[in-house]
């Protein structure tokens, strides 16, 4: 039953018609738990609240369905506006983005043009930009673009997903540019031809690539809500005498608030991934697919 629900939410998250319908209702029925708001002002206030209790943030203006150059340029402008709002407000937050929202599926050149505009703005304000990893078909081109951008910018990194067979080799390759990486298990539905189908194999590979990346001396954003993984990484970091300046723990906005605050109290750097914007539906569906138990939270809100 859980697998059926997971597949259903993943399919809904890719549905253009479902996304369009969701916009009519706004952040209702529980989505506001995971999404900071539809406006940049709401997102900045959410980050301010996180900063007040010692947490950092990375803001992501949600948008995954871009079909024209005009829409891609508008999405890039929203990323720039987000960076400007972060700087103007004084909150402590990076920027995360998806390159499909910047026109990657239209033209690589268009996407690069928009990425350079965004990175120039981030550099002006001394900020950092994280390129989110999307589904498998976008993996190689994302890494190709990262390599190209790293020839010009040092304030950009990406994400590696542990459920892909290729990720261990990608970690080795990215060591050549000392990439700042956010390391995750992975949230997209992928074929067993390219991804581990069993949870245990994903978990084992996840811990392996984190350790590999840290031992290479590179910055790791350890993105997990799994306490067993977090505790193992804390012990590894302590045993290997890895500096606190080389890593941070990351979690999603609205998930495991207790654990986020506990890690801050223990002296660890913690960053919350804070999404906002009107195109929230695909992100929300992936959160439900990751943990179908969240559906009961949504249903309770629906019937209130």
Automatic annotation (TrEMBL):
FAD binds at residues 133, 161, 185-187, 199, 224-225. GO terms for biological process: L-proline catabolic process to L-glutamate. Signal peptide: none annotated. Substrate binds at residues 98, 286-287. One of its GO terms (molecular function) is proline dehydrogenase activity. Binds 1 FAD per subunit. This is proline dehydrogenase. Residues 44-298 form the Proline dehydrogenase domain. It comes from Paenibacillus chitinolyticus. It catalyses: L-proline + a quinone = (S)-1-pyrroline-5-carboxylate + a quinol + H(+). The keyword Flavoprotein applies. Keywords: FAD, Flavoprotein, Nucleotide-binding, Oxidoreductase, Proline metabolism. Its cofactor is FAD. Its EC number is 1.5.5.2. Pathway: Amino-acid degradation; L-proline degradation into L-glutamate; L-glutamate from L-proline: step 1/2.
